[in-house]
Amino acid sequence: MIPLVKTFIPERKELMPALERELYSGYIATGDTVSLFEQNFGTLIENENFIALNSGSAALHIALCLAGIEPGDEVISTPMTAEPTNTVIAQTGAKIVWADVDPKTGLISPNSIRSKITERTKAIVVVHYAGMVCDMRAINAISQASNIPVIEDDAHALLAQFEGKPIGSNSAFTCFSFQAIKQMTTVDGGGIAVKDPSLVSEAKRLRWFGLDKGVSRLGNDIKRIGYKYAMNNVTAAMGLVQIDHVEGNVGSCILNGRYYDERLLGISGVTTVPYYADTKPSYWLYTMKVDRRDDFIRAMRARGIESSPLHHRSDTHSVFSNSRCDLPGLDEWYSNYVHIPCGWWVGDEEREKIVEAVRAGW
Ligand SMILES: *Cc1c(COP(=O)(O)O)cnc(C)c1O
């Protein structure tokens, strides 16, 4: 079976010496290796204001803290995502207000965002779902006009682009995840890139209980409660090795994705997804719409190919029942979107086989 997701672990002879050195270095907590990882990852995403954390969820939480979100505030978000995007918002006590998605792409609809803004709206969370990039031109214009910060959840879209630059420096906050099945993994891990450099020290305090690591423990005074969110040196050592492979791996995803974009065009029962102006997806998963999805998934499985919609819409979970509203765009999208394998483990032969399997019908 060609899987939809797979964990990339660099070869033993490359990874193990790096991990071993770190483990026996005498300092495995948050230290110089984390700083080096921050520098290198910052270079990769073209934003040096990057703070490494222990998960993508922590990154989202710190973004919401930096945006000053408090109980009673409203945060506009998308239901078409992995659940942590929204459980973290709920954790702050803010009310989630769902924006609908564009039924052609499954990505948050700028028009819907605009219609959901109230005087209580304090942040807009957008997700570059499956590696496709949201309509950032329109979303930037809304953010500027309303003065509401945007938090980009980039857990699915490492090295995807907007206006020729990797996602990471466009909005006030960009959040990354290095969880096991993401485009780059440190087993678990994450990080936040901020646009305003003056927020870096606050972010660093928030990841360490509210303490300032640059001041002696006894000289510290916690003024705002922080969390246990920092990345450690062992994880960072793994991240440094992963960085050496990430452009190659994501590059393979992109080549496969573009191949599908061309080869799946015009096949009966398949509708490919259009991409927004000035955006380039990084194809963590390949996404399309198919008629009679259950039949499609069954036929692909019989041909040795895993396919699935993968994610549950967030808005129908009981914990989010206060936020329920009509989302006709999502209803339309949710009924027939599907993912097919597209990652670095899909070689020329496999992708050819996948196209042939789709072409054969279901
Ligand atoms: C994985 C993921 C997260 C959370 O990341 P963790 O590192 O698992 O905490 C957030 N948002 C999306 C869209 C994700 O897929």
Give an account of the 3D structure.
The protein is α/β, with parallel strands linked by helices and 362 residues long. The protein contains 11 helices and 13 strands. The strands form 3 sheets. Strands 1-9-8-5-4-2-3 form a 7-stranded mixed beta sheet, sandwiched between helices. A hairpin with a 2-residue loop joins strand 6 and strand 7 (165-166). Helix 1 (12-23) runs antiparallel to helix 8 and helix 2 (32-45) packs parallel to helix 8. The chain is globular. The site of pyridoxal-5'-phosphate (PLP) has 14 residues, from helix 3 and helix 4. Pyridoxal-5'-phosphate (PLP) is lined by residues 55-57, 81-82, 84-85, 127, 153, 155-156, 177, 179, 190.
Short account of what is shown:
The chain is α/β, with parallel strands linked by helices. It has helices at about 10-25, 30-45, 55-65, 85-90, 110-115, 135-145, 200-205, 235-265, 295-300, 330-335, 350-360; strands at about 50-55, 75, 95-100, 120-125, 150-155, 160, 165, 175, 190-195, 270, 280, 285-290, 335-340.
Question: Helix tally?
Answer: 11
Q: Report the strand count.
A: 13
Bound molecules: pyridoxal-5'-phosphate
| Unreliable segments of 5+ consecutive residues | none
| N-C termini distance | 18 Å
Average pLDDT confidence is 97
Q: Level of helix content?
A: 25-40%
Find the structural class using helix and strand composition. Answer: alpha/beta
Give, in spatial order, the strands making up the sheet with the most strands: 1-9-8-5-4-2-3
Give the H and E element order: HHEHEHEHEHEEEEEHHEEEHHEH
